[in-house]
Amino acid sequence: MVSHTSASWLLLLLSPFASPALARNVSPRDAVPAKYHAAPYYPAPHGGWIGSWKEAYEKAHALVSQMTLAEKTNITSGVGMYMGTPCVGNSGSVDRLGFPQLCLQDSALGVASADNVTAFPAGITTGATWDKALMYARGVALGKEFRGKGANVHLGPTVGPIGRKPLGGRNWEGFGADPVLQAKAAALHIKGVQEQGVIATIKHLIGNEQEMFRMYNPLQPGYSANIDDRTLHELYLWPFAEAVHAGVGAVMTAYNAVNGSACSQHSTLINGLLKDELGFQGMVMSDWLSQISGVDSALAGLDLNMPGDTNIPLFGYSLWQYELTRSVLNGSVPLDRLNDMATRVVATWYKFNQDKDFPRPNFSSNTRARDGLLHPAAVLSPSGQVNWFVNVQNDHNVVARQVAQDAITLLKNDGSFLPLSNTQKISVFGTDAQVNPSGPNACANRACNRGTLGMGWGSGVADYPYFDDPISALKRRVGDVKFYNTDTFPGDVGKPAADEVAIVFISSDAGENTLTVENNHGDRDSDKLAAWHGGDKLVQKAAEKFSNVVVVVHTVGPLNLEPWIDLPSVKSVLFAHLPGQEAGESLTNILFGDASPCGHLPYSITKSASDYPASIANLKTFTFGQVQDTYSEGLYIDYRSLHKTSTSPRYAFGHGLSYTTFSFTNATLRPITPLTFSPPPRAPKSPTPSYSSTIPPASEAYYPPNFPKIWRYLYSWLPTTEADAAYAIGKAGTKTYPYPDGYATEQRPGPAAGGGEGGNPALWDVAWEVSVTVNNVGSKFAGKASAQVYLQHPAGNGYDNPVVQLRDFEKTRVLKPGESQVVTMRLTRRDVSVWDVVRQEWVAPGVGEGKDGYTVWIGEASDRLGVACYTGSGRCEGGLKGPV
Length: 884
Ligand SMILES: *[C@@H]1O[C@H](CO)[C@@H](O)[C@H](O)[C@H]1NC(C)=O
Ligand SMILES: *[C@@H]1O[C@H](CO)[C@@H](O)[C@H](O)[C@H]1NC(C)=O
Ligand SMILES: *[C@@H]1O[C@H](CO)[C@@H](O)[C@H](O)[C@H]1NC(C)=O
Ligand SMILES: *[C@@H]1O[C@H](CO)[C@@H](O)[C@H](O)[C@H]1NC(C)=O
Ligand SMILES: CC(=O)N[C@H]1CO[C@H](CO)[C@@H](O)[C@@H]1O
Ligand SMILES: CC(=O)N[C@H]1CO[C@H](CO)[C@@H](O)[C@@H]1O
Prior knowledge:
The chain has 884 residues and is an alpha/beta fold. The model is unreliable at 3-26 (pLDDT under 50). Bound molecules: 2-acetamido-2-deoxy-beta-D-glucopyranose (6 copies). Residues 665-666, 773, 775, 820 line the site of one 2-acetamido-2-deoxy-beta-D-glucopyranose.
């Protein structure tokens, strides 16, 4: 969403443009490249046809049946930006029936804009652990904190962007540049959050792979991500499918368009793919201020608009609320659609038992003071207590530190230089070693890169309760540390002792496009893949003076390390990613060998930006009209692209060293569910709640008599005359709405590829289990190993496939020298399938009579796959060179 505080005042400047009609003046469709097309898909599928949601829908049906028209439209919309307290999104309530306002709150790494919370490591850091137990544990802790603050809806996790463009601004909010890493991390995050009774939100659907030009504004539509069907299914939609399979309660659409149609009103995307094919039963919300049509977005399947305003907020105008009420009275939006929208919202609330003892919000996004305005955007607002300072941190610093520590990725360690000993003399260089001197939260929305970089900027942040910075942790550890708090190598550094170590801290930041930091517009369009603040030079200078240099990198994503990586004095390089509040001790525990590093790269690091095709290496720049971002590289992003062009990266996807070494032996492959080329047919949908479809009387929309309106608050009622006029239009039925092409009202049976949450349930059948024995074959250090499984399709199977694709992963426990552990990983039918665009079905090209089977590669990085199992013969062997 739009970062809090920024958007309001920025957009307020646009006030002369504001009108309720304005949002519609933006042409919703520009020409897209000929190949791409947003086909119509109507009507919006009803929710409630999947067994696990049955009870929630029955309860929702009972409640929604009692609601008036204005009550239904009230709960499908926010009450306005900064109007409801206290969250970034607040829906309308039905007080009469005990249905509360829902509090929707950022972010994916902690409760945003609140005190006494934990600032967890970012998504990219979590991805770098490759540790399912930690992904889940972080989700549990996040869920507890959102619940403790009274937030019904957690606006995370983020899996879009996936990280297609290394320069993309919000890649760090997600888990890494691979659909399976994103999917498994997101599913565990969702499970952890939702087990606490908090609704998780998977976002952003879809194609938000760069920040610049993403939003529709009065002058320009958001860019169009032009994505072909197979690429969408196998890369970008894949983590969303897994999230739906995990039972996620909410989905947020993206700002941009796909194939020329804005995501918030894209009928194929929401009705077709998300609700019918993936069988999503929860509620679909817009990203903040991204709704650009009223009737059309309702028909296309949007259920909840956030924060309620038109895309120029704060003028009391909405495309829904009172307008949705009018659209139902005048017959343009079928009551059937509104009933489904309201039922989805209420069913989601019941599904997570929020009708029982869910705390009311006890914090305010708008102020940290005890008292504040109850409706901050209203000029005259009552005030009262808004913050109760509920401390929800508990012992979550423990899991936060473990994630930060287990994410630390050792890229290089010449001559086993690390770990350090406590007696070594240490000089530290770089402003990134110490917390921002003005305080860790000095910059709103973390929109600056000063001091240790613990998270990117924008809406995906939280306030630090404290910041354990690296320099303090180093001083605690060794006492005598010389610290040069500068990014320019100082002239007064004396001659170092022979064994003296220079630790150089460098960083690279990125964030959301609403805020610009050091000329980077969300995306890293200015600094690109270079370290900020001249960090590369700082490393080079330190390497001239010192013969032992350790580089610590806090970064949102890949950097170009070529300026210094091969310098002989650069002994060791650690990527600490974005550690959140626990930046210090997590790092010193690794530096001094209390634990071996066990993080692995969640993306590739190339030797040159141009090692990728231009469509992913470059950001889209300004053009008049709609910027076209065409995914011409198809499936070939990150390592898939490098393998295709036989380009060696500097460090491969999945790479990460340890202080010890591991062997992978004794692999076995066990067939579990016998597969056929196509999955078995899906089951038909079960019945969904039914309601009367007669347009209700206009009186259900009237303002209550003498209602004391708050200026700019968004209400779902209409003045009597307006309600009567709309009703008359609907009743006469002579004036019809210009429905989109392909508009229909008859519910469909759903596509063959659907049938359950996430698609045909058979896609999740486990086809094979692979086990491997991981042995710590080192002699000095204990450590955790990452086991990664990559699938190789048989050649010449009629589909163009990447050389290998990650399909599962596991982390071992801490193994002492000589200790071993058998780890088991799984391949589902989906994992071994390709999306056949003609059949519109997942098919498994490596199964069936006379077919060559798949090769299942196992190892500790995409370029260290020494063990293979063959599904054709069932045989496994080791000691191989690997597929690339
Ligand atoms: C985008 O266009 C391509 C090419 O026509 C098509 O395969 C794909 O399904 C479209 N996607 C969406 C979401 O409309
Ligand atoms: C809509 O929600 C607001 C905020 O909770 C509430 O004050 C108002 O009464 C609700 N309107 C209806 C029609 O229930
Ligand atoms: C009904 O109201 C909506 C919302 O104001 C409007 O967009 C639509 O054109 C109206 N339909 C008719 C038939 O007047
Ligand atoms: C591998 O299996 C063989 C035979 O079962 C066994 O002797 C050997 O110890 C195993 N190796 C490891 C590392 O577990
Ligand atoms: C335990 C704790 O961190 N409490 C803090 C909660 O927030 C208030 C207001 O910011 C602080 O004063 C407390 O110290
Ligand atoms: C205003 C309000 O409802 N405050 C609640 C915040 O949460 C704490 C702990 O859950 C409750 O005790 C407060 O009543």
